[in-house]
Amino acid sequence: MATLVTVYTGRVKSFENQIMLNTQNRVLAFNAAEAGLMKALGMLTENPRWDGVAFADALPNLGSYTVSGAWQVITRESTTMRLVTLQSAGTSPDGLSTVTVQEQALLYSVIANPPDVPLIVAGGLNVGGNFEVVANPNGGGEGVPLSIWTDLDVDMTNGSGTTCGLQEFNDGNCSSSPYSEKGFQDLDILDNDPDFPDDLLEYIFNVPEAEWASLRADADEVLNSCATLGPGSLGLIWVDGTCHLNAGTIVGSAANPAVLIVTDGDLTMNGGAVINGMVFSFRKPGNLADFEINMIGGARVNGVVASNHPVGQANGTYNSVYDTDVLDQLQQHDALQRVARVPGSWRDF
Predict the structure, then answer these.
(1) Which residues are CB-contacts of 10 (< 8 A; sequence separation ≥ 6)?
(2) What mean pLDDT comes out for the span 216-228?
(3) Cβ proximity of 341 and 37 under 8 Å
(4) Does 332 score more than 90 pLDDT?
(5) pLDDT at position 5 over 60
(6) Are the C-beta atoms of 134 and 169 separated by less than 8 Å?
(7) N or C, which end of the chain is more exposed by having fewer CB within 10 Å?
């Protein structure tokens, strides 16, 4: 009887140890699979153009994983986005247990809805100063140029505002061959538009004004001035307060553009300064102060200038040239891509 009891107890203990070992192996394999999934998500942040080809890695004393991705393109309204299904297989250190987990991630541009107009202003435009705006030749439809878009009035009776086509601008004839000029407003200026978005920040970046802090947290750089900006600046740059660019300063390039958000402050660009990309003059909710945009001595933005508050009240000067290549890069450049995990897509097998 004693022998039988001993043998029985030994078998029970053996089964318990095996169960414990299996449980431990599964936990290790699961952790390895999760580590692979996190590695893939991190890699997508650094390299949004990863083609999904499988890669593997070993974790010291924790097992190993193999991860692959399957891509598809989805359309949301007028925007196309890339969706990747990530699959990670984790293996325990002894190779006896394997767990596979899966999750989807969405790659999207910081600019959810790139404007098709070089100057877009909420609150109207009182042209007390000067501006020169080069129209999007197809902004209002095929062959219909569009220069300025606003919800209120554009007053062309003061100052010396001019809009023109790209060819005229390149030839130096913007003032002599304009679409619109002082005292005359053509159809390239769309003002008093009832369909103008109520929230310009949300329209462009898909972030409501009340949640501006989340966009600031997503910026590649958060600055208190523009002193450090230059040709190598790219991605989403958030500036708290006044932005002053010295004469001749170049920010970004056509191939590597920047999105510059200037918050609760004036933007001043001196002679020859150029920003390649988008400038958004953002006044936070509840702030009623007047902020201005001044582009002096031929300074300009190649791309888009946007403002969620009226400009032109203090003789502001703004020069914006619609550049199709820059706008394309603003949506496609790796530095302006973000990765979001799709809620509810995680599963294990």
Answers:
(1) none
(2) 95
(3) no
(4) no
(5) no
(6) yes
(7) N
Look at residue 203 in the predicted model and tell me its pLDDT.
Answer: 94
**Tokens linked to 172:** 């130096």
Pairing of β 243-245 and β 267-269:
parallel
Distance linking the first and last C-alpha atoms of the chain: 45
Reduced 3-state DSSP string for the chain: CHHHHHHHHHHHHHHHHHHHHHHHHHHHHHHHHHHHHHHHHHHHHHCCCCCCCCEEEEECCCEEEEEEEEEEEEEECCEEEEEEEEEEEEECCCCCCEEEEEEEEEEEECCCCCCCCCEEECCCEECCCEEEEECECCCCCCCCCECEEECCCEECCCCEEEEECHHHHHCCCCCCCCCEECCECCCCEECCCCCCCCCHHHHHHCCCHHHHHHHHHCCCEEECCCCCCCCCCCEEEEEECCEEECCCCEECCCCCCEEEEEECCCEEECCCCEEEEEEEEECCCCCCCCCCEEECCCCEEEEEEEECCCECCCCCEEEEECCHHHHHHHHHCHHHEEEEECCCCCEEC
- The answer to whether 268 touches 277, Cβ cutoff 8 Å, is no
Average pLDDT for 82-90: 95
Phi and psi at residue 242, in whole multiples of 5°?
-70, 140
Q: What angle do CA 143, 144, 148 make, to 5 degrees?
A: 140
Closest CA to 32 of 90, 87, 95, 89: 90
CA distances 20 to 13, 100, 201, 323, Å, are 10, 20, 55, 64
Structure tokens at 13: 């203990």
- Can you read off the two tokens belonging to residue 320? 């914006």
CB 243 within 8 A of CB 226: yes
